[in-house]
Amino acid sequence: MRGADGLRSLGRGLLPLKRGREQGRGLASRPRDFVPFPQRVQQAVRAADQRRPRVWDGLLTAFWLVAVLIDLNDGGWSTVAISTDVPGWLLLLITVSFAVPLYWRRRHPFAVLVATVVPAFANSLSGAVLQAETLQLVVVYNIAYRLPSRSFWWVAVLIAAPQTAGATRFPDTAWWDRGAQFLWAALFVALLGVVVRSRRDYTRALVERARQLETERDQQTRLAAAAERARIAREMHDIIGHNLSVITGLADGGAYASKKSPERAAQALQEIATTSRQALGELRRLLDVLREDPPGAEEPALSPQPALADLDGLVERVRAAGLPVHTTVHGTPDDVPPGLQLTVYRLLQEALTNTMKHAGPGATAEIQVRYEPDEVRLAVTDRGGRPDGSAERPNPLPVDDDEPRADAGRGLTGMRERTALYSGTLDAGPLTDGRGRPVGWRVHALLPLPEESTT
Question: Which pTM value belongs to this model?
């Protein structure tokens, strides 16, 4: 597995998301010439309605009021009226009572329907049969569009009651046919309101779903970026911390041997150069994945991440820096996946780096690695090296995650994070003798193999 390849693939996966958002913004802000004229008019009307709903309600109410007053003034109502002996003031009152309540049809549709029932009864019982009665259909549409379906039963009662009263008042006329037509029209308008409401709810659900998906996508992007930042920080800590510790040990040894054994000093300088080049190469590969390459740029040279096959080289570099290391390995890492191999390698590297930093001169380290069919066990133990006989760290890393030190760095924290990725456990703490005095430090980790590797 190539860690650099994984980081680069993540970066390339995030770029299409960014481009997709930019393209979406471009489509949303396209010129108005691409929008059909009827759609532009509809959008303008909706925008005006949302900005000033009271003004829009007033204009529509005034329109319907003028229309029914014109019908009343022209006498067109008398051609379908059952009785033309209705007083003029009553006709005017019925007409205005049907039209004016429409101003509140959107805010209180059911109350408006109740208010129009009184002129509806007057219209039916007087025999005037004014066409203004059809304005009740506007109210029925608003009820079906805005109120729950359980209110439809009351709507049916309020609409049918005046028609039934008129048929009872004038039984010898064709009122039943007229009433049935009005009820069918009310039913059609109610169904139309339900359909439009369903379409509105569906559109709102789609918009909300799209908003949630965009939010989730942004959250996943941020989480992935945070995870990669943490991973890069761990890798850089391991690379820099280990190699600088080795270089420091080699430099101290070379300075000590420069007077008595120039050959050993030259060998130490050569090891410093080799370790420095190796560290620079690992850092360059790690940082290359963060660089935004221009189109057509060549892929940087990549190499696999460290694995357990590189453990001998790690131990040799530590020994060359002056720390005696004894290694015991039981089993073979044939069934260990590459990701877990990198974790084991980094754990051992960090433990040896801490020993070189804190154990002091004269310390020794022992590595034990055991490959089981379903888990990997490793332990790194160091002893001695402190002038006063203690093995406490000058700046010990926190063992208790609940109270981490601000100056403790990422050493043990990174080791715990790497172990937790594979549901493993990590124990780290001082070794004591029979009297309870610290004589060293021990790091023990247990890493279960993934299920796909054990089947």
Answer: 0.46
